[in-house]
Amino acid sequence: MKEDKNETRWDKLLHIRTMGRDDSNADRYRYPYEPTPYSVLERLANAGYMRKGNTLLDYGCGKGRVDFFLSYQTRCASIGIEYDERIYEKAAENHTLAVSSGRVTFELANAEYYQVPESVDCAYFFNPFSVEILQKVIARILESYYACPRSMQLFFYYPSDEYIAYLMTVDELSFVDEIDCRDLFPGDDPRERIVVFEIL
After folding, report:
1. What CA–CA distance (Å, rounded) separates 20 from 2?
2. What percent of the chain shows pLDDT beyond 90?
3. 155: which strand partners?
4. In order of start, what are the domains of the chain with their CATH numbers?
5. Which GO terms describe its molecular function (predicted)?
6. Which of 198, 190, 182 is nearest to 37 (CA)?
7. The pTM is what?
């Protein structure tokens, strides 16, 4: 119940509506919309990885919760990309009223074809798609990195074993940290964590 209150409180504070799950356009490659719990985002914001001057790319941004929250809390700029037009419209609606909308932009795009801007130095994933798509996305991120070398951090919340196994095979990626979130939810689920990788 406390978690529900926190969800509503932050949505109200940020002047957005991001609650609820939506799997109407999900398939075996693209997973349902489900917002990252605010308690997890608070922990990420407090970890000190993002601040003013950083630009976050949120893959499968849904209704924009991650973008509005992190830009509000850390003052980073944020770009959310979403392939589902109906959900993207909800993010655009939120953008008209959100308190941190000045630092946030959204694009209707398929992640695997999206050209990563050179300003991006952080990327966020909450299991938005299959490993097959993730491989193409990582290739796009590396393309951008080689065109303009910079330190980049990738954040994976609630990662599957498949994701981790694949990420460990990418030469350019180094595992740097794990933000434990198990204490935030009942059940001691080992996947309740944010795994941080870096490209240097």
Report:
1. 16
2. 86
3. 124, 196
4. 2-199 (3.40.50.150)
5. methyltransferase activity
6. 182
7. 0.93
